[in-house]
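Format notes (please read before filing issues)

Several people have asked whether sequences and C-alpha cells are stored in separate files. They are not. Every record keeps both together, in the order shown below: the sequence lines, then the C-alpha cell lines. Line labels are part of the format and must not be stripped during preprocessing.
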Amino acid sequence: MKICAAGAALWIAMWLTGGLASGEGLDGRECDPVVLEGKVLPSLLHSPPDRIVGFQWQDGWVPIPVQIDERKVVDFGALYDRDPSGITFLTYADVRTGAGADDDPTFDADDELVFMARDSGDRAANAETAPKGTLPGSSLELEITDPLDGHRAYLYLFRSDGSLHPDAGEQYVQYAFKLLTGDGDYRRDYRRRRGPNAEDSTVSSPFYQTHFSDRWIRDEIHLFADGASAVNVLDRHRNLFGPGNCVRSEETFAKGEGAFIINKSGPVRALRAYVGANSGPLTERDHWFYDRREDTVTRLRVHPIPGVMDLFDYSAAAHGMTYFDDLNPEGVEVDGEPDTIKHGPISLELLRGHQGSLIHVMAIRTDIPDFSYGSYYADDRDTGTVQCSGDTSEYATSGLWLKSRIPNTDPRSGAAARLELLRTIDYGGPAVTMADAGLRAKQALEPLQVVARPSPETVRR
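Then the structure lines:
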C-alpha cells in the first residue's frame, strides 16, 4: 500500500557538493509536496515564472509539472478595499482580489515553487545534454532525502527558451471558485462589509472532491480512492466557542465582514485563502489542496475569547465507519449511538470505512505560556446539544477543543499572542489502517529534506 505523507513544512538547505549516489526513490511519500522559496534557488531568481520548468531523470529526461505562486506583503485594508490599516502580512498575490499583483512579476525571493515529491527520479549522472528547450547552464539539481529511511531522489529545474510550459501538460487538482452573488465577479459583487456571499465552489481530484457554499462553510467531502463509495461524508467543518454555543460559528463568520486573499487553481495545487470572522476581521484561514492531500492553517487574530473548537461533523452517510485517534487506537463505530472514549490533547485522527478514509494530523503553533488543549468527540443522531449549523445530528463530530480562555491575538489591539491551528488531511481508500495513519503523523514530524545545488557538469550543454 502506498502511504501518503502528512507533513506540511519542509526544511530546506543550500549545499554545494557532488559525487552522491543515484536516488533510491521516495516510497511512502507519494502525496508529499515539495515547497521551496525563491531565496533558496538564487540561480533562478528574476526569471519569468512561465520560463521555469522541471524534469526528472529516468534513463532520459521526463518533464514534470512545477508551479510558482507569487507572494507579497499585503495590508489588510487592501483586502477589504479600504484605506491602509497599517497591519501587513506576507501572503499570496492575486490580481482578482484586493491582494493584487506581486510588485515583482518575476520569480523573487519570497515566491514559492512547488512540485510533488513523487515526480522526482534518479540522479542524472549519465546525462550528456540538458533537455531540449532549456537554456545552457541554467540547470539546478535538487536532492530530496527522507530522514526516516535515508532514501533519496533527484529533480532538476531549468530555465526554458519559451518552448516548454511549467505544467508539463498536467493538472493534478481542479479548483472551481463560483460566486453566486450578483454576476459572480468577485471584485465587483463580493459583499465585504456584510455577508452572506453564497458560493458553489468545488475542489476535485481523482481521489476526492470537497465543496464550499460560503467563505467559511465547507459542507461536502466525497472520497474516490481504491473503490471508496463517493458518498458525501461531511456535514460541516465547524468552528465554535464551545458545544451548543452558537454566538459564533462558521455561519456567523460567513454572514459577517470578510474577503478573499486568493483563489487559484494551478497544475500542482489549488489555493484558497480568506479573512474575516466577525469581530476578528484579520482572522485568516488558508487551504493548500493537492491531489490526495490538503493542508490548512487557521490564524486567530481577535480580541480575548473564551476558547475555540475546530471540528469536522460528519453526515449520516458516515454510518458504519470507524473513528480512531491517538488516545483511542482501538476505535469506535460510527453509528449515531453515544460512545465513551478518552479525551485529551490529540494530534491524529482516522475515519475509515467502505466510504473511504480521512487521516487528520493536527498541531497548534503558539507563544501563549503554559497553553493546553483537549479534544471533542460525539456520535449521537439524537443529540441534545444544539447544532449551530448543518443538520441536527452528530456523527463522529471530532477535533480540537481549546477550552482555556485565549488572550488577545489581534495586532490592532497592541501586544498580541500568536495562535495558529494546523491541519493536514490525507484522502484515501477503505483499507487505510491506524498504523498507516501513525506513519503519516511521524512523517509530519520528520519532513523531507531538500538540498539545492548547481547540476553536475555532465548535465550542462
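For reference, the curators noted about this record: The two ends are 40 Å apart (CA to CA). The chain has two domains: 11-70+105-170+446-459, 174-430.
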